[in-house]
Amino acid sequence: MRRKAIALAGFVTGAVAGSVLYRRSVGRRRDRIDVYFDDGSMVSLVEGSPEADRLMPVVRELLATARR
Amino acid sequence: MDAAQALADLTEISSQIECAVLFTEGGDVLGSTLESEEAAAALVRGAGELLEAAGSFRSEGGRVTQLEASTPDGSVFVVRDGGRGIVATTAPQPTVGLVFYDLKSCLRSAAEAEEKPKRRRRAAPKPAQEQEEESGGEA
Description:
A: 68 residues, alpha+beta, B: alpha+beta, Beta-Lactamase, 5-stranded antiparallel sheet
């Protein structure tokens, strides 16, 4: 009986820990820039692309300046 | 309603917006929710840099009207319309559509405030004495 309880507690703990780790890895927000043009088109620049990597330092600087 | 009032209304309506700066196409600050003028000018410079660089990424050309840059620490929004622009920062994961709507409303309010005095001046009637002089001179 005691063994069963310990096994159950271990299973529950493992399931919760796994769920938290999965959520953290999948749910991490990536840097992104959405650009809208006057003709109605939109371009999304995602972290890792050369365009986004060029603009993200400016964005971070803007956020830092605003919060100083 | 002037630029300062439009910004005050914006921050009152939208709790997601941390700070906002209104500017002209030439990069002059029209109004800001920031205390520091230097910080406001730096925000406008950065916004201009973002708009210019973002526009150059598309080979067909075209004018950038608005952009949203999101990071895990917060987001930066830039909107421009009719010779004016606004740059704003928010906390992480804002309601993007709502923030854009509020920023455009703020831009419109500031633009209307600038146009109203001009209209009034044009519509002002001439003084009676001046009109009499004009009609007398013709006769």
